[in-house]
Design goal:
Length: 91
């Protein structure tokens, strides 16, 4: 004869297996560069340029441009034409 504890554990195990085998809906991020998050790369580059240029670089404007344009123009800290809109003059 099977005890009540054994039946209870069996039912719990069955419920656990059924719940964990349920299909999961995934919502992957945009993968235009082979799996990389382009907006994240863009914002990371903005932060790097801010570290390099300090007060001369408007990092928040750069990050806003990354979000607004969905990372289509990634700033390169060594290419002044790509970061020119975010540079300011210090007096």
């Amino acid at each position: 004869m099977v005890s009540g504890k054994t039946v209870f554990l069996g039912v719990c195990l069955l419920v656990f297996v059924v719940v964990n085998n349920a299909p999961v809906k995934a919502s992957p991020q945009i993968e235009l560069m082979g799996g990389y998050d382009i907006i994240g790369i863009c914002i990371t580059n903005c932060a790097q340029c801010k570290k390099m240029y300090g007060a001369f670089f408007e990092g928040h404007l750069c990050a806003e441009a990354c979000v607004q344009f969905k990372g289509k123009t990634i700033p390169d800290c060594e290419d002044l034409s790509s970061i020119a809109p975010f540079l300011n003059k210090m007096n």
